[in-house]
Design a protein that fits this description.
It is found in: Endoplasmic reticulum membrane; Microsome membrane. By secondary structure, the protein is mainly α. The chain has three domains: 96 residues, no CATH class; 37 residues, no CATH class; 43 residues. It is built from eight helices and two strands, in the order ααααββαααα. It has a two-stranded antiparallel ribbon with strand order 1-2. A hairpin with a 2-residue loop joins strand 1 and strand 2. It is elongated and about 80 Å long.
């Protein structure tokens, strides 16, 4: 009986030590973080709120106090950039260092998962390399009149569809499939 108690106590102590270490990741790097329960982290928070609400709480608490803040989703450390210049640097200058996304998904699951913003790592790099020359400022200025014309045509088609329905429902699949 004492043997099982010792084994259980040892496993419990190791688990607590492991979780403490995992939840000190940002603290050890000198990055401010939300206060965490060392045993459960933010497990109950994640069960009751959406990840975006957790990130919004981080933003509200540290807005104006820090440029980068850390938090956790279960035991995974998540960096939250609060400074606009830092966000710009991440998205433009250092984009090649920030290729992976948070969510894991099945690649064959849906066509939306093959979108540039949803791809990870090695599948993202070649697609971005192909698309980057397309979106220079000169080419965007050249494309703008065409985009404006197409947007006006879409607005007209949408208005026609709305007038045809009595309840205001429009089947977007039919409208966008043209």
């Amino acid at each position: 009986m004492h043997f099982y108690f010792i084994i259980f106590s040892t496993i419990f102590a190791l688990l607590i030590s492991y979780l403490r270490y995992k939840y000190q990741y940002w603290e050890l790097l000198g990055v401010p973080q939300l206060k965490m329960n060392y045993f459960l982290g933010n497990l109950f928070r994640i069960k009751t709120i959406h990840k975006t609400e957790l990130l919004h709480e981080v933003y509200k608490e540290f807005r104006g106090k820090a440029k980068l803040v850390g938090t956790y989703v279960f035991t995974k450390p998540i960096a939250v950039a609060l400074d606009l210049d830092l966000v710009k640097s991440i998205l433009i200058k250092d984009f090649n260092k920030f290729t992976d996304r948070f969510e894991q998904r099945n690649s064959s699951e849906s066509i939306i998962n093959h979108h540039l913003f949803r791809l990870d790592g090695e599948r993202w790099r070649p697609l971005r390399a192909k698309l980057t020359p397309t979106f220079t400022s000169a080419k965007m200025k050249y494309m703008f009149p065409t985009l404006l014309t197409v947007a006006q045509q879409l607005e007209e088609a949408f208005s026609k569809q709305l007038t045809k329905t009595s309840n205001g429902d429009v089947e977007l699949h039919d409208l966008m499939g043209r």
